[in-house]
Predict the structure.
Amino acid sequence: MSRLNVVERESATGPTRDLLDAVQKQFGRVPNFMAVLANDPGSLEGFTKFHAALGNGRLDQQTRERIALAMAEANACQYCVSAHTALGARAGLDESEIEAARRGGSADAKADAAVRFAKTVLDNDGDVTTAELNDVRDAGFDDGEIVEIIAHVAINTWTNFLGKVGQIDVDFPEVELLDEQLVTA
């Protein structure tokens, strides 16, 4: 059971209700994560706007989902791993690509560079080397796309932390975290 209140759309009022109605319209339901985020309408609004802005960015949906999967696994957030496994499959990632992303990589060379860079940013609290920055540039990412990768690290880390603090009930097909020793390879 979630350790943070799950706000029911039907009982929400004012701006919170409006935001949850928009989530319902977009997803066909209100995922538990969004219902927990609704405890603070400002956070829910900020998340939905940030998420929408990044959704209109230059990274393709599959790369965005790969980064989300890598962050969720690295941060050990089972809710987010489960959610992004479903969302990644919906975006066209097959099982092997989902697992590769969870392990911090991809069979696609350009996507691999993005995911590896995102994981490096996370693992080193943003303190990347010039060589690591040049690797992602050499893979074809410009500074705008690099900023976007970093933004995806930030939004996913935020959601991972909320999922873990709240121990949010998984309302996607549940996916177990990988063995920690296998992820660090």
Summary: The domain at 61-183 is CATH 1.20.1290.10 (AhpD-like).
